[in-house]
Write a structure and sequence with these properties.
Blueprint (H helix, E strand, L loop, with lengths): L19 H7 L2 H4 L3 H17 L5 H19 L12 H13 L1 H4 L7 H37 L4 E6 L2 E7 H26 L1 E2 L15 H7 L4 E2 L3 H6 L2 H27 L7 E2 L18 H24 L14 H21 L4 E2 L1 H10 L4 H10 L4 H17 L9 H7 L8 H4 L1 H6 L9 H17 L1
Parallel strand pairs: 3-4
Antiparallel strand pairs: 1-2, 5-6
Helix pairs in contact: 3-4, 3-7, 3-9, 4-5, 7-8, 7-13, 7-20, 8-11, 8-20, 11-12, 11-13, 12-13, 15-16
The structure holds arginine.
């Protein structure tokens, strides 16, 4: 009888021991042990299927399931001893199973390869992470809706080129962030459909000669269906790239959101207060209160986009089917999931405590001639061509600048100098409130429309 040398994987074929550094260099157990739970879940389903197809005896199947259950407990309790000699999470668990139950442990790998095993583990892992990510994302969306609802009538300047453009409401501005996050949510759900396909049964690359039942394993693991091509199943990581791309978009949105919160909390804008619990002081300047959470989130967006680039580059030149290159997919993926969860969590916790400074936002909108377009539109409604109206309003703005007055503070006779079409009703349009209320179509900033948008959004959130 041949004895299995536990020192080296497939050691019978090798005349030499692995170089000590190569052993460390090629091992992944330090990081892929994070998928231990998924690895065990996949193995239990595989063994159950092998048992039901008569490939394992019922006793062997039960021994395997009991052994794996014990290993899961050892891991949870921190008693499991991980060894680099066993290279990765899969071999560590299999070796321990054989220690525990003997020969039946060595039968678990029947009709399977680490290639379909690892692809399955990552899919299970991502499916689970997406659940946590979307939980925090939804929490953030609700926080944004609550804040928007409190500020349906709160006027602030809207910007283009970071210059005051037209008045909007703070509620409307918040709802813009809500819409972006809605698309992020949908992207994750959509990507999950393609993650939720089962590679097991593809084995090393060509499938297996055992009479397996892939549909059964897929059902046991909650996958939508078994994958359609064995080569594709073990080699492509496009689903992971897609997840990281969806993650990069989330982080890009959070980064833009952060940029606004940072600007708005500065003394120069002074539009909002970020609570102390989400800021820190300076070690040297006693007066400082720094918006650390938004800054860190903005910074962290870079690493997720970096992970997207790594995974694309990792994949791009690989021939079919599995290559060891793919072992490099784990760390970027894990870090993407961790970063998303942490950033969304911090945001969902912080947003309910943001306090808009209404008076400051109002004064800022007033200072910037935000209703200039409204005056032009007023003249157009009275029969003037838009370009001529644009010109005339330019003159009125210049007068306002020179005399340090908002358009609504310029007297009627002064305005009439520019056009006889202007009458007293012009002030209904020159006020910030009038301007905002007039944009009362779908998607507009009028408080009545923002209220309706929030209502629709709440229904949408209740349905998820
Ligand atoms: N640790 C490997 C990975 O992460 C598992 C698959 C290894 N397969 C193999 N044939 N070397 O991809």
């Amino acid at each position: 009888m041949t004895t299995v040398n536990s020192v080296k994987l497939s050691s019978a074929r090798f005349a030499q021991a692995t170089d000590a550094f190569v052993e460390v260099f090629t091992a992944s157990v330090d990081f892929d042990q994070r998928m231990a739970k998924q690895d065990i879940e996949g193995s239990i389903a595989h063994a159950t299927m092998l048992g039901s197809c008569g490939i394992l005896t019922e006793l062997e199947r039960d021994d395997i399931i009991n052994g794996l259950t014990q290993i899961a407990e050892e891991i949870t309790n921190g008693e499991f001893v991980w060894s680099i000699k066993q290279e990765d999470v899969h071999m560590n668990i299999e070796a321990r199973l054989t220690d525990l139950i003997g020969i039946a442990g060595k039968k678990l790998h029947t009709g399977r390869s680490r290639n379909d095993q690892v692809a399955t583990d990552i899919r299970l892992y991502l499916r689970n992470e997406i659940e946590h990510i979307t939980e925090h994302l939804a929490r953030l969306q609700i926080a944004i809706l609550d804040l928007a609802e409190q500020h349906i009538d709160t006027i602030m300047p809207g910007f283009t080129h970071l210059q005051v453009a037209q008045p909007i409401t703070f509620g409307h501005h918040m709802m813009a962030w809500f819409e972006m996050l809605c698309r992020d949510y949908e992207r994750l759900q959509d990507c999950c459909k393609r993650i939720n396909i089962m590679p097991l049964g593809a084995a090393a690359l060509a499938g297996t000669s055992y009479p397996i039942n892939r549909a059964m394993t897929a059902e046991l693991l909650g996958f939508r269906r078994p994958s359609a091509n064995s080569l594709d199943s073990v080699s492509d990581r496009d689903f992971a790239i897609e997840f990281t791309a969806a993650g990069s978009l989330i982080m890009m949105h959070l980064s833009r959101f952060s940029e606004e919160l940072i600007l708005w909390s500065s003394a120069q804008f002074d539009f909002i207060d970020i609570p102390d619990a989400f800021c820190t002081g300076s070690s040297i300047m006693p007066q400082k209160k720094n918006p650390d959470v938004p800054e860190l989130v903005r910074g962290k967006s870079g690493r997720v986009t970096g992970h997207l680039m790594s995974l694309l580059m990792l994949m791009k030149s690989q021939p079919l089917a599995y290559n060891k290159d793919n072992q490099e997919d784990k760390e970027p993926l894990f870090d993407t999931a961790d970063t998303l969860i942490n950033c969304l969590r911090a945001y969902a916790d912080m947003i309910p405590h943001i306090t808009p400074k209404k008076e400051n936002m109002y004064a800022s909108a007033k200072r910037g001639f935000a209703t200039a377009t409204d005056l032009a539109d007023y003249l157009v409604r009275k029969g003037m061509a838009f370009r001529d109206a644009h010109e005339i309003v330019g003159l009125a703005v210049r007068l306002g600048l020179e005399s340090k007055r908002d358009l609504s503070e310029i007297s009627l006779p002064e305005l009439q100098q520019f056009s006889p079409l202007i009458t007293r009703d012009v002030y209904d349009y020159l006020t910030l409130e009038g301007s905002v209320a007039s944009r009362n179509h779908i998607g507009g900033t009028a408080p009545v429309m923002v209220r309706a948008a929030i209502q629709t959004a709440r229904q949408k959130m209740a349905a998820v």
